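Question:
Write out your own:
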Amino acid sequence: MTKLDALFEKNNRWAEAIKAEDPDFFAKLSNQQDPDYLWIGCSDSRVPANQIVGMMPGELFVHRNVANVVLHTDLNCLSVIQYAVEVLKVDHIMVVGHYGCGGVAASLQNQQLGVIDLWIRNIRDIYYANREEIDTLPTQQARVDRLCELNVMQQVQQVSRTNVVQNAWARGQALSVHGWIYGVGDGLLKNLIDPITGIEQIPEQYRVFKIGQPVK
C-alpha cells in the first residue's frame, strides 16, 4: 500500500465511523452549511482547526495561510471574510496564531528567503514597531513567541478595519472579532485580547462610517 492509498483507507474508516454514530450525518451536511464561526489560522500542519475546538465538519468555516496574516490586498482572505459574514452570517471571527510559528520566526531573520519575504514583510513591520519590547526578551524562542502574540493582535485589527466587517456592524449584525493563540506543546488555546464587537472600538482614521451612519 502506498502512502496515498493509506490516505484513502483512513478516509474510508473515518467516514464509516461517522456514519456508525449518525447514519444521516453526511446527508444532512450536504444540504446546508451553517457555521457560527470563521477561523483565520496558520497553514501549519500541527494546527488543525476543527480538532482543536472539537468541532465536526460544517461547524467551522476556515481560512488558513502562512502565519495567519490578513492583508487588505489579499482577495482570497477578504473573499472568505465576506462570504462568512454576508452569506453564512457567522457570529464570531477568530484570528488564531500559534506559538513557535515558522512564518513569524522567519520574519526575524536578516536574510532573503524567497517569495515568502513578500508575505512576512508585514510581520517584520510588527516587529519593528515593537522591537524595544521584543529585543529585551532573554531567548530567541521567547522573542518569536511574543511576536506570534503581537501578530495575532495586529491581524485582529486588520479584520476589524475591513469594509465587510464594518458594514455588518452598521447593519446591526452581531459580529465579534477575537484574537487567540494555540500552544502546539500543550494543545491549549489562550485568549489574547478582548473581542472587538463594534465600530466604536476602531480608531477613527480606520472607520469607513461615522458612528450611527447607516450602511448604504
Observations:
- Residues 140-160 form the longest helix (21 residues).
